[in-house]
Amino acid sequence: MGSILIVIALVVGYGTKRVIQTRSWQITGDLVSRVETDERVVALTFDDGPTDADADAVLDVLADRNVPATFYVNGKDAEQNSSTMQRIIAGGHEIGNHTWSHRSMVFVSPSTVADEIESTDEVIREAGYDGPLTFRPPHGKKLITLPMYLAEHDRLTVTWDVAYEDWSGKPQSSQNLTDATVEDIRPGSIILLHPWFGRTTTQGAIGPVIDQLQEQGYRFVTVSELIR
Fold first, then answer.
1. Considering 38, 47, 56, 98, which one is annotated as catalytic?
2. Is there a catalytic annotation at residue 47?
3. What residue numbers bound the domain in which 209 lies?
4. Of 60, 115, 139, 194, which one is the catalytic site residue?
5. What is the CATH number for 34?
6. Is 0.85 surpassed by the pTM of this model?
7. How many domains does the chain have?
8. Strands 219-221 and 70-73
9. Catalytic (active site) residue 52
10. How high is the pLDDT of residue 64?
């Protein structure tokens, strides 16, 4: 009997982990990781931050190429880096909610979910952004309470299908990141990059990724435009 219980526990644990980590499904509500289309169109998204110290390295590259992006910001950083928020809005970019503190949204209470999302919504709106507000969970992880809240409030979960930053500590160059990203692109892809907090490798890949994809005939749109 003990062995059977262990097997059941392992199966349940494995299944739970898969639900938490999958980028293409959640237990309730709408989720998008990529859009099915034959048109050469993609969405470039940035997670975390923003940070005033890195604003030029991110926003100037987009402005020089006239490329819109979608920024999934953390409420605490948006509040502390208001000038960059203003630049994002002035640049015509889309802003999404990435929680207040970037804490894991797995095994949390409904009140925690509400606090993390609603406080971030408030900061984004107070900055003057009046566009659509989609949501992206930290690390893409979700289980029960988060999807239930999002479904109840008619909020869309947006994940991604292209992300090649190396978080293992192994050396990675901007060229490595560019090559891996461009190679895996398909029409309707959602690209994820983390350019804030001094991540110069990622910052150095933004321009080349845009340039190479545009050379291949791709057009960049915001997440909401891609979904439409």
1. 47
2. yes
3. 2-227
4. 194
5. 3.20.20.370
6. yes
7. 1
8. unpaired
9. no
10. 98
